[in-house]
């Protein structure tokens, strides 16, 4: 088991570097992909004078497990590369990688937020692999219908249709776009949701016939009250439910964390993954995982001291 609010370790005793990440379940194995922030945390001044902290891009860390507790490292499955004008150059920005599996082709498709240090590129990057442990081949970045794409996630529905969900309009709007049939590009089918709500750190899943959503307000590395919502269709209408966190230390501030991913579990609960960002040393940022029972149509997250996997 793992103690929440700590930086978890893999089966080799090393800190798990999978920040801002997500899960994938294929053939009885769980895969966890996220940002490797093992490099030094540096402070930068943006052109507008707003200071930020960041770690040079290392790549996407990958881990696998059969119980969601004991994690075997797969190494860096998508690596940064020193090259002029390259999206994954260490000096650029790579955030919130998520991987989905395209069954028909046997391809693993990664989507991630790609940006420049001034955050003006705001693109959605795509990488592919024929194996879950990689290596992934980077294909480039695009913008949904020419709009900016910032914090993002992806979701595969029961019918195999996949969707890209991101912050757009300078974070004012949440944009849902259906992916192409091979999951490698964006279709023209999209819809703007939560207009003028300014949310990031999106996570979505489906359980007990409903779509469940959680996100964060836009306060950078600092915590804020979580937002949540429920709908009968991914296109909405969505009913906002407020902050679902209960108990523990500072639930009104999401336990000093920020959401990153949701996963429907085989035991009928919904797992919600959070990062507890440590701005002075981002590579030491901790994890918080809690599970909720949404069978009664309510979305409430009760604090858990430890994550011990399935019931």
Q: How would you summarize the topology of this molecule?
A:
Layout: E1 2-3, E2 19-26, E3 29-35, E4 41-45, E5 51-55, E6 59-65, E7 72-79, E8 93-102, E9 107-115, E10 123-129, E11 137-142, E12 152-156, E13 162-168, E14 173-179, E15 186-193, E16 199-207, E17 210-217, E18 227-231, E19 239-240, E20 245-246, E21 258-264, E22 270-276, E23 286-292, E24 301-302, E25 306-307
Parallel strand pairs: 20-24
Antiparallel strand pairs: 1-25, 2-3, 3-6, 4-5, 6-7, 8-9, 9-10, 10-11, 12-13, 13-14, 14-15, 16-17, 17-18, 18-19, 21-22, 22-23
Instruction: Report the sheet-strand fraction.
Output: over 45%
Roughly what is the average pLDDT, rounded to an integer? 95
Q: In what order do the strands lie side by side in the largest sheet? A: 2-3-6-7
Structural class by helix and strand composition:
mainly beta
Radius of gyration: 18 Å
Specify the number of helices.
0
